[in-house]
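Sample 3 of the quickstart, ligand 2-oxoglutaric acid:
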Amino acid sequence: MSLTPEQVEFFEEHGYLTGLDVHDADATARVARDFDDLESREGKDHCQVGLHGRHIDQQFIWRLAIEPIILDAIEALMGSDIMVLSTHFFCKYPSTSQSAERYVAWHQDITYWGLDPPYALTAWYAVDDSDIENGCMRVLPATHRSGVVEHGTSSEPGNLLSINQEILDVDDSTAVDLVLRAGQMSIHHGHLVHGSNSNRSNRRRCGLTIRYCPPSVKPVRENSLGVPWPARLARGEDQYQHFDDFPLQF
Ligand SMILES: O=C(O)CCC(=O)C(=O)O
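Result:
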């Protein structure tokens, strides 16, 4: 899927695209099965936000990260040289009386990533159907045009972000819910303000974020996880070698 000029223009103006088809029913079900297997080995607690950079050791995640349909869309927005910076699952389980409600506070991706220039795009691939009831991603359109903004610390328990960051005093009256069927994706700009509400359904809501940047972007500071980016070239050429090329382990 290469994007249409109208989609590229929409992205430039609003900072996101949504409802993009990636997989048919069979391929979607295969990804869900692979994730279910991983979940049964790793445990649900760890799967909420603990699965960082697992494209290195899980073939199905690497396959998703270099899925031509996804890369074609990223290429239309970013150019033909594309690094996979990292991958990360956000998996929200139904809240029960024993487990606290989990949500993702309003934030920008790029603020704590230590990149120069601070530029990356995210493809959010829906492993499960993602809707208002189970806490789909929400975005504040066009906020990517304001550059990097200040973050504070969330005072509400249950924020799934790595350092409990939150953009305080957000006017969310323009928020858009990114409702996706399993096998679809959205794409958002690293400066776009986004988050998600807790899962009020009895269904899992799992999405894989795939972070992309051009090889010209340089890691200049530690990111919020304090570990090197598990980066790999996905398409085109890397004339810069700013990132160590992580070997695959499967
Ligand atoms: O999956 C979510 O609810 C949030 C995703 C997110 O915050 C991100 O892509 O950085």
